[in-house]
Amino acid sequence: MASPALISRTHPWEDLKAHVEDLKGTHLRDLMGDADRCRSMMVEFDGILLDYSRQRATVDTVDKLLKLAEAASLKEKIHHMFHGERINTTENRSVLHVALRAPRDAVISSDGKNVVPDVWDVLDKIKDFSERVRSGAWVGATGKALKDVIAIGIGGSFLGPLFVHTALQTDPEASEHCRGRQLRFLANVDPIDVARNITGLCPETTLVVVVSKTFTTAETMLNARTLREWISSALGPDAVSKHMVAVSTNLPLVEKFGIDPKNAFAFWDWVGGRYSVCSAVGVLPLSLQYGFSIVENFLKGAYSIDQHFYSTSLEKNIPVLLGLLSVWNVSFLGYPARAILPYSQALEKFAPHIQQVSMESNGKGVSIDGEPLPYEAGEIDFGEPGTNGQHSFYQLIHQGRVIPCDFIGVVKSQQPVYLKGEIVNNHDELMSNFFAQPDALAYGKTSEQLRKENVSQNLLPHKTFTGNRPSLSILLPALTAYNIGQLLSIYEHRVAVQGFIWGINSFDQWGVELGKSLATQVRKQLHASRVKREPIEGFNYSTTTLLTKYLE
Ligand code: F6P
């Protein structure tokens, strides 16, 4: 493949830069008055409605963004991803998380080998194992059924599964399947996280799943050793084979750790950590908790969006539109952050997961060829479910900084409540906010409106809302396992689209290495000072002072 020119040197990029000026005097209040424009900014697929009419964009803007996509060879890049080309060039890897949710008869190849049969071998193994554990056919060392699971992992080996677990917990169908069972996640190396996780659990009835792509991550391995000790000190060292299993690409290290390779669930280097929730990383713990059939529906939902992303024309393609609009907001309108605001408590772990997917993928400073970027890539993602967020950071979003918002709503609540005497049911109450907030941001409130309400002169500037603050709304029909899979896939592909346009490698993460290696140096020093009483050496004044205070 020839080296791509930086996208900022293309005509469509220049054109969009100039186009920002065209929009300077245009307020969202005016744009929202044009019903034809709004109609053209709605896309529906498989029950999901995307409404991006509250973006600071005209039909012309979208045309220009589509031209930018062409200049960035977006279609070709998507094609390369789905066809197993080694688009993660710095690690010389394919990027094939879409193969993880492909049906059994699909053909998706990496290096000329169809990887789908391997994927299904592992899925079949998970189905079999999780059914044996759930039915009590697989028991612990003392013959008791394993009703509780602690999944140890961090980053991509934690956040995605936690998000899906949290979202499924209140789904009526999924919760039917997990009576009497618990799934917990141990991520932080902080011993407090260990304490929290084992509190109330008994080693006799607990299965520990060690999840690590590399099986070298310091936090995960220390936590794994800690829980191995928890099990073997209670039940004897032989109990480990009954109480610990692993998910990894590094099966030799799994075995070296003392986990029977028969009890290891593989995945492959073409699955990036933050894109691994559909591999055994997520599928094993979630199947243990909810049963394989629920998790299969989750994979089907993700697959549905994969197909949409691969084959739908760009102007009707939900992840593509979302990605292009984010590029527009970051690179042209200059908004560096994005708020992810699901109006569903079940999605409380969605923003933290997308934070990693997005910020670890697109937080880059050089192009895929290593050229420093003359523009910023990536954005700061954060979020909270509505309405909680409204009572926290929405003040800043309404009257402070401009932060494009993703409002995510659900038509059918997982847990509807109808309270006698209320004018609407509880879910309608929640959704009233979902529908109101985007308009509050877009329209704002003028001083004229306030004057008509007899607001006193001195309060006018404080009560004025400038409006013209962009958002988009995504309405899901429900929040079943299938819909959760759809949502995941939409965001994964959106992030990829942004990276493809910015011309970066969204699939490596070298930026996490430096801190890790400096921690190794500190770890050695702490050991030397505590055990051998050696002085602190080789650190700057600040770190030396902090370390001295800590060691005192
Ligand atoms: O934070 C860096 C990172 O490498 C992530 O990309 C990854 O998801 C996480 O650490 C955990 O890695 P592993 O699954 O190898 O333990």
TrEMBL record:
Domain of life according to the entry: Eukaryota
Protein's name in the database: Uncharacterized protein
Organism: Melastoma candidum
